[in-house]
Amino acid sequence: MSNLTSPYDELADAYHATIDPDGAGLIDPTFDALAGEVRGQRVAAVACGQGRDARRLADLGAEVVGIDASESLLAHARELERQSPRGIEYVHGDAQDLRPLADASFDGVVCYMALMDIPELEPTLRSVARILKPDGWFVAVITHPCYKSPAHGELVDHVEGTYRRIAGRYFEEGPHNSATRWEILPRVAYHRMLSTYVNTLVGAGLSIEQMAEPIGDRPVWKEAAGLLYFKCRAAR
Ligand SMILES: C[S@@+](CC[C@H](N)C(=O)[O-])C[C@H]1O[C@@H](n2cnc3c(N)ncnc32)[C@H](O)[C@@H]1O
User: Fold this and answer.
1) How far is the centre of ligand 1, averaged over its atoms, from the C-alpha of 14 (Å)?
2) In the chain, what are the domain boundaries?
3) Does ligand 1 lie within 6 Å of residue 204's CB atom?
4) Percent of the chain scored above 90 by pLDDT?
5) Distance from the Cα of residue 163 to its chain's centroid
6) Looking at the domain that runs over 7-144+193-234, which CATH code has it been given?
7) What was the pLDDT predicted at 81?
8) What is the pLDDT of residue 1?
């Protein structure tokens, strides 16, 4: 029995009830576009939580394994799988080693909105590279490190009536008090500079093929990017 836990264990019911209570799966056209044609592919959803990303990939035709450190979120994922089977396997494990997953066993890996919750980036990305087959792909989605740095806020431009994003403490990498985040998220998150993400991806052998910064729904996210997407490729 593993003693691996996640700060999400205590928040699991609230997270599940807010994020995807009926289990319909992730709705994110930018994610779908970057993942591309996944039909028939074996895909790992790393840090899958209650499985909304895993369900989306399965609905797009992939054979999916979801892995997460939170048994409480995985319980929701497994219950949704029981209610509406998609053939998804859920595994309890640490993204920083992905020990339950074999080398070179996946065509693709996704990590949706989770790298900021994982303490160590380098072993996580090295583990992603390890489980990918040659030429396999990796899609990661994170809160934008430039606009959601450890200190941030919003200003209203009274001339234009539009929003401005202010961001500070950008160079302070590592854990920070993230109490300003949504209440369904833990109070600690891990900040890295954009260059750290890029250099660590490349250092793990994951070359960047594409990035995306879609315009969001809230007024402030029409002025600055709230999310950052990477699509990477393992070596042939
Ligand atoms: C914001 S949630 C995202 C979950 C899911 N991908 C989604 O989009 O709903 C972050 C997830 O990262 C997981 N997590 C944090 N640290 C982890 C680790 N070391 N190994 C595996 N999962 C981890 C948490 O348990 C949580 O499920």
Assistant:
1) 14
2) 7-144+193-234
3) no
4) 89
5) 26
6) 3.40.50.150
7) 98
8) 64
